[in-house]
């Protein structure tokens, strides 16, 4: 097979960037930014930016209705949904500004309360804490809010202790932050818990936000499952929580276990770190960042490690596609179930090549992604697009149909098939 010669400058640019596209194979979390008319812009735009810079979060705007709202007195914003018809969220973020509009809507308060009662997370920014207080979510808890709003929020709860001089207070499924920019800090903290501190730091770096100091928040919560695992090890934990582990998301987030493993590694306990990460891959098999961390841990233990994204790209560049495919097959046998690279990162590489009209090269990249992620509708959709632009109509139809088979709601594939009807 003809060798591929990639531009060194393109490869360098790709290798040096962080990628914020959602990872199709990882656990996905829906984030509803609940913005009333008059919402403070940075209260929701800052956290929204942070969530979209991290893999695994689907963010959308929700309001009382689908009618446009105004923020800061100058910006008109159209919500994606009303709270009555939006996709069921995993996280509701409530900003400050315009909160009286929510306080005077009992159904909105009930929606927030029901979400929390059913196991969802609520993150408030600034005076958004007043909504959590009205819903009864702060009773018996410590919390914080905007520096001018302590009396206002205190009147809405009978038994909450509001703290000054902290950027956020984490009570587990209810996190409150101080005003405006503090919402970014609280969001990065939550990303750290859910996906890992490495992911939160990468999101902050992409945003060029250097103000996040995790120690400025109060962690008023400890995950009992993680505490048990830390005290008793993986084997006893699996035995004790055998039934509950059928739904691991109810026990722990990937980030909590990754962060524990990082603590082990910092203390030199690399084998304990490896055990914790392997445990995590068993219950969250699609999280590529766990494998990235496990690779580093194996290196500390002087264990063999599989190739990563750069290794595959360098093989493609130096030896050609066939060698890269052989490398994938060989390492898949040596490291079964391992994720060697992020789907989104390889996909991005393919689209970069497509933008240069290097269609044959892009097709090979997408083919490698299909080999690595055969259950993702997205990789077939991308490969089909490359075939279509290269006027390989039969191959394009075949892969769009496969994408639709995996995801019948993929309207893009349906539209593309219709467009190629007479080809």
Q: Please give the CATH architecture of the largest domain.
A: 3-Layer(aba) Sandwich
Point out poorly predicted stretches. 1-24
CATH homologous superfamily designation of the largest domain: Class I glutamine amidotransferase (GATase) domain
Name of the level-1 CATH class of the largest domain: Alpha Beta
Tell me which oligomeric state these chains represent: single chain
| Helix-residue proportion | 40-55%
What would the average pLDDT be, to the nearest integer? Answer: 92
Biggest β-sheet strands, sense, barrel: 8 strands, mixed
How large a portion of the residues is in β-strands, by DSSP E? 5-15%
The total count of strands amounts to 12
CATH fold-level name of the largest domain: Rossmann fold
Task: Describe the fold and architecture.
The two termini are 28 Å apart. Helix 11 runs antiparallel to helix 12. 52% of the residues lie in helices and 11% in strands. It has an 8-stranded mixed beta sheet with strand order 5-2-1-6-7-11-10-12. Strands 3-4 form a two-stranded antiparallel ribbon. A two-stranded parallel sheet has the order 8-9. The chain folds into 3 domains: 196 residues, Class I glutamine amidotransferase (GATase) domain (Rossmann fold); 77 residues, Serine Threonine Protein Phosphatase 5, Tetratricopeptide repeat (Alpha Horseshoe); 78 residues, Tetratricopeptide repeat domain (Serine Threonine Protein Phosphatase 5, Tetratricopeptide repeat, Alpha Horseshoe). It has 19 helices and 12 strands. Helix 6 links the parallel strand 8 and strand 9. It is globular, with a radius of gyration of 23 Å. The N terminus is likely disordered. It has 423 residues and is of the alpha/beta class.
């Amino acid at each position: 097979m003809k060798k591929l010669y990639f531009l060194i400058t393109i490869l360098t640019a790709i290798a040096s960037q962080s990628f914020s596209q959602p990872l199709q194979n990882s656990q996905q979390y829906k984030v509803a930014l609940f913005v009333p008319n008059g919402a403070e812009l940075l209260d929701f735009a800052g956290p929204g930016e942070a969530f979209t810079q991290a893999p695994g979060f689907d963010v959308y705007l929700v309001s009382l209705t689908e009618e446009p709202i105004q923020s800061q007195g100058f910006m008109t914003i159209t919500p994606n949904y009303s709270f009555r018809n939006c996709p069921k969220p995993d996280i509701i973020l409530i900003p400050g500004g315009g909160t009286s509009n929510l306080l005077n809507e009992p159904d909105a308060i009930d929606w927030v309360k029901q979400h929390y009662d059913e196991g969802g997370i609520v993150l408030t920014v600034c005076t958004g804490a007043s909504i959590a207080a009205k819903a009864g979510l702060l009773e018996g808890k410590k919390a914080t809010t905007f520096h001018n709003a302590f009396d206002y929020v205190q009147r809405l709860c009978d038994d909450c202790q509001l703290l000054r001089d902290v950027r956020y207070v984490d009570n587990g499924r209810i996190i409150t932050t101080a005003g405006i920019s503090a919402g970014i800090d609280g969001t990065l903290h939550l990303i750290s818990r859910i996906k890992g501190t490495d992911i939160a730091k990468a999101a902050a770096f992409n945003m060029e936000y250097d103000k996040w100091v995790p120690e400025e928040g109060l962690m008023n919560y400890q995950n009992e499952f993680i505490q048990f695992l830390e005290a008793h090890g993986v084997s006893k934990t699996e035995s004790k929580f055998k039934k509950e582990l059928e739904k691991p998301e109810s026990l722990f987030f990937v980030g909590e276990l990754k962060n524990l493993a990082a603590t082990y590694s910092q203390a030199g306990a690399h084998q304990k770190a490896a055990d914790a990460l392997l445990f995590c891959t068993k219950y969250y098999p699609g999280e590529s960042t766990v494998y990235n961390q496990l690779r580093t841990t194996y290196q500390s233990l002087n264990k063999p490690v599989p190739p990563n994204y750069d290794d595959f790209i360098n093989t493609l560049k130096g030896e050609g596609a066939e060698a890269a495919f052989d490398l994938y097959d060989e390492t898949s046998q040596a490291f079964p179930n391992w994720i060697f690279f992020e789907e989104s990162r390889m996909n991005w590489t393919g689209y970069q090549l497509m933008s240069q009209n290097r269609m044959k090269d892009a097709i090979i990249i997408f083919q490698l992604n299909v080999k690595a992620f055969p259950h993702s509708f997205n990789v077939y959709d991308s490969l089909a697009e490359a075939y279509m632009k290269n006027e390989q109509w039969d191959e394009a139809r075949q892969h769009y149909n496969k994408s639709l088979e995996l995801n019948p709601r993929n309207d893009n594939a349906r539209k593309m098939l219709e467009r190629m009807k007479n080809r």
